[in-house]
Amino acid sequence: MKAISFILFFILSFGISATYAQVQSNDLQIVADSIVKTSINPLAPARAAFYSAIVPGLGQAYNKRYWKIPIVYGAIGTGIYFYSTNNSEYHRYRDAYKQRLKGLDDEFKGQYNDATLISAQRTFQRNRDLSLIVTIGLYVLNIVDANVDAHLKQFNVSDDLSFRPEIYPSDFSQQQNLGLTMTYRF
Asked: ∠ at Cα 9 (7, 12), nearest 5°?
């Protein structure tokens, strides 16, 4: 019985608060900067993501989060650096192995055998491919960050709106009761 009454109370309180919370714009009275209306641009997240897709970091600049731009370029630049390093090492060991198959001398003559050259090729190829995947992932993360940041800039976090649960003792039985408080200040 308590559960049913709690659910009924919960539904009724939300229903009543929802009907009172819907105020028409012509019903608002603006008194000396008491209500500041900020415009919401629904295309801002898409635009920020598009800018970041074109040039990494441009979406962060569009969102005015300039401190994120060096992080974006550092992350993507590190991925590109490791890709190019592993790619050049892979080609170095591959060319040496090809020279050996032709019967010519290579830079690793007397230092490594054929099995070691093949193993080194596979290792650097795997590292190169992993670096490419990580770099693409960081590029996508750059786009997602710009999109989410643009969404969160439009989120209302003012102190005028709060919703929190309250636990308070009952006046009659001194048992803990659970309630909800919704505050909206004008």
From this structure: 105
